[in-house]
Amino acid sequence: MGSGPSLLHREDIHVVIVGGGYAGIQLAKSLKNKARFTLIDPKEMLYHNVGAVRSCTEPGFVKKIMIPYAPTFGENFKQGTVTAINAAEKTVLLSSGETVKYSHLVLATGSTGHFPWSLPDGMTTAAAVVEKSEEVLKQVKAANKIVIIGGGAVGTEIAAEITTDYKDKEVTLIHNRKILVDGESSDAFQKRLKEILEMLGVKLVLGERVTNLAELPTNRVETATVMTDKGTEISADLVIPCTGLKVNSMAYKDSLAFSMEDNGSLKVNNFFEVQETEGIYAIGDCTNIPETKMTYRAGMHAELLAKNILAQETGGIKKEYKPDPFIMTLSLGRKAGMGQKGSSLLPEFMVRMLKSRDMMAWKVWRDMGQSAPS
Ligand SMILES: Cc1cc2nc3c(=O)[nH]c(=O)nc-3n(C[C@H](O)[C@H](O)[C@H](O)COP(=O)(O)OP(=O)(O)OC[C@H]3O[C@@H](n4cnc5c(N)ncnc54)[C@H](O)[C@@H]3O)c2cc1C
């Protein structure tokens, strides 16, 4: 934020940030030394879910994707779960019973899904994540026929991770659409992606919907038959679901139901202000902004909101958020990667260096101002 305006002298300003994911930590960093803030998250550490795919194949990698909040944010970090908001009193209620008063409330509660893509409620310590992650590593190692359900970015990346590290395993990726990863990607992206996956030995079943997911044993080695709506049957001994990320609305669903979309996201305007509220904002995955949800976009929301809060309180001019051109990078195992910016493909060596090498863990540790474990 450079040496711009500061609100540190203003006792009446207290920005409460609910959620320490990519949006929340960026906002906290942008407000550091500029305004009084408290970052609240149930976990003791940021979980860099971008790297979760590698934690399924590389022993010990999970430790590189958990960065403790305390060394970065000190007393500005409060471990806790927000369960309600009292907009009239301008307070949030924590599950411990404690209330925290705010002048500006920023909801950055993101989304939630299956482990290891996201952490279940109650899994709040690095030690608990390491233990559960070791179990996933064991299951992947023991399996021979793996079926991955869902060909979004996560399903595609995990298929490539497994075939890169285990040449002897049969890996099938089933996706209900013909297009993998993201509808915003170009034909050239799709063509090159399918070439790389084929080279790695991933079998693709596209345009078919799995019909028996609810009955399948998932994330543990057990014989099963995966069935699709086109009549395809695939035998598996490990089924990994990569579908169903949901907006995490636990903090506000009872208090702000009137400002929520059916999927749980919050209706915001171009200044991230939550509809029909005052002093309440939302950024990152929990907003209804019509764009593919991504870490860099969560970070952009946060940086702009920090500037706007500072501007608003110091007589400056607020700026509207305008979704930027599409950028996506995809790691396809340690040795391959590809990406797209606007409508052009990114140089593959660049994506390999930036992302595939260590899933950008280096960047998150650097952004948190800490050194990664070796
Ligand atoms: C496996 C996986 C891989 C991905 N890979 C990429 C990628 O390579 N590139 C990319 O751009 N995007 C990627 N994404 C998408 C990206 O992770 C999201 O867009 C990003 O996490 C959004 O950040 P966020 O801060 O909005 O939410 P999150 O990162 O989901 O963070 C939300 C935070 O809120 C906290 N929280 C929730 N409820 C409460 C509560 N009641 N009280 C207090 N705190 C609460 C949670 O503990 C969490 O820390 C990936 C997503 C997944 C799941």
UniProtKB/TrEMBL annotation:
It catalyses: ubiquinone-10 + NADH + H(+) = ubiquinol-10 + NAD(+); menaquinone-4 + NADH + H(+) = menaquinol-4 + NAD(+); menadione + NADH + H(+) = menadiol + NAD(+); phylloquinone + NADH + H(+) = phylloquinol + NAD(+). One of its GO terms (cellular component) is cytoplasm. Keywords: FAD, Flavoprotein, Oxidoreductase. Residues 14-292 form the FAD/NAD(P)-binding domain. Its cofactor is 6-hydroxy-FAD. Pfam families: Pyr_redox_2. InterPro entries: FAD/NAD-bd_sf, FAD/NAD-binding_dom. GO terms for biological process: apoptotic mitochondrial changes; negative regulation of ferroptosis; positive regulation of apoptotic process. Putative FAD-dependent oxidoreductase. Belongs to the FAD-dependent oxidoreductase family. This is Ferroptosis suppressor protein 1. It comes from Branchiostoma floridae. The gene is LOC118426987.
